[in-house]
Amino acid sequence: MKAAPLLWLISALPAVALPATPDPHFVDRAQALPVQQIYSGGWEHFVGGGVAVMDCMHNGYPALFAAGGAGPSRLLINTTTEPGAPITFKVADGFPALTDVTGAYPIDIDGDGWADLFVMRVGGNVILKGGPQCSFADVTADWGLDPGDKWTTAFSATWDAGQTWPTIAIGNYVDRKNPNGPFFACDTDFLVRPDGRKFGVKIPLTPSFCTLSMLISDWRRNGERDLRVANDRQYYVKGGYEQMWHLDPLRQFTEAEGWDHVSLWGMGIASADLSGTGYPDVMTTSMGDQLLQINTKGALAAAPYAIGTYAQRPFKGDDGRPSTGWHAEFADVDNAGRMDLFIAKGNVDQMPSNASKDPNNLLMQNPDGSFVEKADVAGIATTERSRGAALVDLNDDGLLDLVVINRRAQMELWQNATPGANHWLEVQPRMDQGGNAYAVGAWVEVKSGDHTQDQEITVGGGHASGHLTPIHFGLGSADSAEVRVIWPNGTASDWATVPVDAKTSLRADGKGLTVAPLF
């Protein structure tokens, strides 16, 4: 695989000098959780362990849906009292009882403005329709989804042109019913296109290679959304690789198109434009090296080792065996105007070839584009068997807090208390017509001084975890900003001034934007 030179990444950074910021700092709020929420179970729950985050109260304080594996999954309602206050939760009343859950993704399937949940399970998958006051009801049959009886571990979604209902991708792991498994026994992934205002028949994505993460993204910035698939070589053993699918017409990318057949223990996917080029770079977690690929106008190449993201062994302690990476997420933890990277780590269970005490990573991006480990300094370098996670503002103060789901241990809740007064903004593009209410597939660009950032609105990626929340941008010391939206149909809005240190909704008004407080 080709490697991208670090010099290229550095040269692509914005010309404006973004100031250095204090080290990140998190406060443990797990004691405020109302229940022991543990991802438990046997072999079928070695993988998975996700969390879905969405503001189902529409009040700026997101709720959590946490997978429980063989144990109960739970919806936790955010009861934080005011911006910046200690984060607290309560268990939701009347939520559908679900076990054997591996993870979930929030997505507004029917376009009514309320987050629904696609719940992945060992067994039949479930769609929960969301409504006011965090109400949820099972609509799997009503919405035409064949729940299947698979070991589902991955999900992604997009809206095709002219459709009011999403196309979804469902990733399945090992075929539990194969008597010759688990090795060489990968189950089949599926694409499901809409049939009116319901889901149609499942279309097999073959070959399939024991999938653990999926992400639909316009990574080439040509208006076409493609499906990236992370696959686990532990069970496909040989002959498999990380995949990319064209969705229209449906076919795999080929090596002749520049898609190298890379084999990883692919666990999770994170995507973000790290250097302001307009093209999203991609992290794929694995055992050993965590693979960051730099995107040069639609051509991916492995980042140089010196960038500091490979995180192949525990960064502290005396266990020199390889790490095991799971959830990955890019986000601006200190609001410096640069994307940082969180990686959840943890042994599969008692795998002797890999580290048993494997701390989670918090890799902070330096002004030169390299990354430095700060998890220990930040206080979040725990060594449980971590799986899914989310970086989301849970107490409405403009700092991204952290939730981590652990196998055989209590989930973690960390309140971001990083010092300093860096500015930020959060924006929520909305579409009132066409079914795609949260503008999945849009790109949001923010300009502050000479510094421009962009983020794509996607559903999927990570490890069994996702969130449907406003798009967060750190601004550093900039106290003003402009934003524009490139809508899913490719139409670009004009630039509009937006308030700083605030959460804002954006709606199309001709070529302009209607800017309004989100709450």
Verbal overview:
3% of the residues lie in helices and 39% in strands. It is mostly beta strands and 519 residues long. Strand 18 and strand 19 form a beta hairpin. It is globular, with a radius of gyration of 21 Å. About 3% of the residues have low confidence.
Keywords, please?
nine-stranded antiparallel beta sheet; 3 helices; 3% helix; mainly beta; five-stranded mixed beta sheet; 519 residues
What spatial form do the alpha-carbon principal axes imply?
A: globular
Which whole number gives the mean pLDDT? 96
Helix content: under 10%
> Beta-sheet strand percentage?
35-45%
Structural class: mainly beta
Counting H and I runs of at least 4 residues, what is the number of helices?
Answer: 3
Low-confidence stretches: 5-17
Biggest pleated-sheet summary: 9 strands, antiparallel
Report, as a whole number of angstroms, the end-to-end distance: 47 Å
- Rg, please? 21 Å
The number of distinct β-strands equals 38
Please provide a brief summary of the model.
This protein has 519 residues and is mostly beta strands.
